[in-house]
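haha ok so turns out i had the wrong file open the whole time. this is the CORRECT one, sorry everyone. sequence first:
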Amino acid sequence: DGDFHPAPTDTMPAALAALQLEIDFARLATAGMAMDALAMAVPTAQRIPGWQPSLRWILVHMIEEYARHCGHADLLRQAADGATGD
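then structure:
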């Protein structure tokens, strides 16, 4: 989970390739894991000491975050051109 600081020379194909690499890494890292498998306990996670999210919780959280950012991009596009996604 890195920061997003695009440079003027960055391209959409490069960004999409980087996204695909992250997707491939996540699939490899979770291959064969049960959805109820627990992550390592992280003392500061969610401000609940020792909280251990399941793989299911992590994946659903990632889907929620991705959808939220897609919504932000849609709002920016609508502000730029006035078109809605109907």
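The longest helix spans residues 55-81.
again sry for the mixup
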